[in-house]
Write a structure and sequence with these properties.
Blueprint: H1 29-39, H2 52-71, H3 73-77, H4 86-111, H5 117-125, H6 143-163, H7 169-197, H8 201-220, H9 232-237, H10 245-263, E1 273-275, E2 280-282, H11 288-295, H12 302-315, H13 317-336
Antiparallel strand pairs: 1-2
The protein binds 3-hydroxybutanoyl-coenzyme A.
Amino acid sequence: MRSSGQIEHGAAGVAPSGGETAASAGPDPREAEFQALIDADQRIEPRDWMPEAYRKTLIRQIAQHAHSEIIGMQPEGNWITRAPSLRRKAILMAKVQDEAGHGLYLYCAAETLGVDRAELIDLLHEGRQKYSSIFNYPTLTWADVGAIGWLVDGAAITNQIPLCRCSFGPYGRAMVRVCKEESFHQRQGFELLYALSHGTPAQHEMAQDAVNRWWWPSIEMLGPPDTESTHSAQSMAWGIKRFSNDELRQRFVDMVAPQAVVLGLTPPDPELRWNEQRGHYDFGQPDFEELRRVVGGDGPCNRQRAAHHLKAHEDGAWVREAAAAYAAKHAATTAAA
Ligand code: 3HC
């Protein structure tokens, strides 16, 4: 069943918890209660009153996140049939399945805000909701699976651990489970790259090539610079985001730069070096123009990813119809009993 609202990019939608008050004189006391919960670092739950803009921001972010998890299955799924051993194949299958599970938790979290998953998927197909830029890059070799685990999942965890403390309860709780699984994903990527890096010269070269291609897009996926981030200030004031894009970017670089040394691989950034004074790594300027292009639909695989998702969705229509028919039959039997 679909809700009636248009919820793309914060357009109007249904408000399960009352939404905005009708035009009335004076401030709404519920606004003060909401703000008191935020100020006390308490959680907002689906039945609590919330400002419409808070609800729309969450729907936008959670939907984008859910779509990313599902589209993110494509680049790695591409390697399941070509994994070099049974062990690697089993690990990769489990990881790709985990991503599907993350998508489902996240769609469920979005649904507690009064939207329907089917509606969100339609908006994705119409190009009115986004998914992460990072999944628009191709996986050219087996080493890319390792680079995705180490760098992409590494950036994802850096962003998602603070989201466990998101002020909206269902999103924060979904993130706890997601982060546990993502930590495993990052370690498997590190271990895979380590094996390649310490293998034959050809394997080492393959690992280095993958890191060369995934390094900058992973740094860029953490979002535009703070000066260009339209939502950060408000999302941080609401306790949805706990850190800005640039703060998380620095954290990510600080985590992976020493790991690269252990891997024996060289990040493609001549400016990367430890800065004793700052207590952080300095790094070069990411190509935010490229990020804008990829987010805008012009990355190497945008069209391919979107077309694949649409086809899988259409091919799966009979499964959804069968499940709905079964649920209706079951409900009728239960009602008659
Ligand atoms: N890809 C696509 N769009 C992006 C983006 C990226 N890497 N970074 C930012 N954007 C979009 C924003 O959604 C926003 O879109 P809008 O104009 O349509 O509203 C716009 O660019 C401006 O960016 P802001 O910084 O103002 O946006 P946010 O405050 O929402 O911050 C974010 C962006 C940090 C990605 C934030 O939305 C967030 O933390 N999202 C949740 C985590 C998430 O979605 N991660 C995606 C990867 S999931 C993953 O990697 C799965 C794992 O298994 C590997």
